[in-house]
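Long-time lurker, first post. I've been practising inverse folding by hand and with some scripts of my own, and I keep getting stuck on stretches where the structure tokens seem ambiguous. Below is the full token string for one chain I'm working on. Before anyone asks, I'm not after the true native sequence, just a reasonable design that respects the backbone. If someone could post their per-position residues I'd love to compare against what I wrote down in my notebook.
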């Protein structure tokens, strides 16, 4: 249910404010929420009354940080910070 709510809210936000700023804000908010939820799921037994299985915990611990990374890279690009000095 939470995943569906995030999806609907995200699509709604991007339809209303289809700008890079909105996408970055959505990615940062989603990433922070899912990362926190993943950490809570690993450290607490049935956080918020939810019975999260290992696969769900792994999903949150993967999707959250990756989305945070995308949001941070988007914010950095929006600010005009060059990525030329980053080694690959």
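-- Answer (accepted) --
I ran through it position by position. Result:
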């Amino acid at each position: 249910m939470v995943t569906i709510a995030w999806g609907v809210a995200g699509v709604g936000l991007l339809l209303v404010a289809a700008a890079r700023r909105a996408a970055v804000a959505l990615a940062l908010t989603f990433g922070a929420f899912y990362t926190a939820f993943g950490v809570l799921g690993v450290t607490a037994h049935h956080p918020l009354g939810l019975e999260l299985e290992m696969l769900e915990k792994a999903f949150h611990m993967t999707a959250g940080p990756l989305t945070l990374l995308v949001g941070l890279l988007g914010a950095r690009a929006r600010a005009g910070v060059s990525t030329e000095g980053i080694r690959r």
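A couple of notes from the structure itself: Residues 2-77 form one domain. The first helix runs from residue 2 to 16. Happy to go over any region you disagree with.
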